[in-house]
Amino acid sequence: MVLLGGLTRLTDSGLSITEWQPLSGILPPLSEAEWGEYFAKYQQIPEYHEINKGISLGEFKEIFWLEYIHRLFGRLVGLLFFVPFVYFVINKMLSLKVIVRLSMIFGLGAVQGAIGWYMVSSGLTERTDVSQYRLALHLIMALLIYSILLWTVMDIKYPARRSDFNFLSIYSKWLTCFIFFMIFLGALMAGTDAGFVYIDGIIPFGAYDLSPWWRNHFENPVMIQTQHKLVAIMLAVDIISFSIIFIIQNDRGRFLGFALIAALALQIALGIATLYHFRGLEEYFAANGYKKMFQFPVMVAVVHQLGALLLLTVNLIISHKLLRKEEE
Where are the domains of the chain? Predict the structure, then answer.
């Protein structure tokens, strides 16, 4: 689901469906007349007039299908969650704690659907893309749901817990918050197309062109890419420091410390590769928006997003392990 969301944003496919139809939208256009209606609605929004003006119906279908699959998969995930959940509850196979946790996850999933439309609606009237603020909210919510799901799985598999919090346990929770913040900054990168910008120097020229000054950290692509790099360096130092301490203090689980360093190295490499492959393509993509579909730079960027998910996953596994009894 995160992969599809990343592809939808990076290929500018998310605005191809201009209405939110939770039930009737399950079926795609089934006739040429229906395709014409969807295309006509798309032709009324700014993205068509300023980026994709003149594309054919066949070219429109390329971006439509990705957004359609994204929305359909969201519905499917909800169904695959809800039906077994009801079955387990009816057959009294779940504890009250797990029922409450899973109910919360399902509720967050429903909210995520509404946030998705809230995000899309921001790009249908005055903008040619969605609000980077709403995009960041949508991504953070997705990873929050994922994190609670993963934590629930680990709680069920390893129910025994420590009551005390040691230094490493607190450190790992700090890292979790730091990684979420880093992902938020990454969402701002994607939402403002800051990857196209060439940055030279620690604080490059143009970093504080907007007024008031704080807007630059959320809306100025130059500053957004700069802060993304600087915070990434700080996070890398933090993760390496934590991993070394964890490896020294945990004989049985030290492989997780090495796994965290490996995930970090992979993510850094993917981040550098993403900037390298996007550099110089801004004018091409601006003039050929629909042609972003599955081009190599886009795929590298999507894998970079999955790399963040991998880093978060390993950190959560370590964080949960630090709360379990030593004999486990």
Answer: 1-157, 163-328
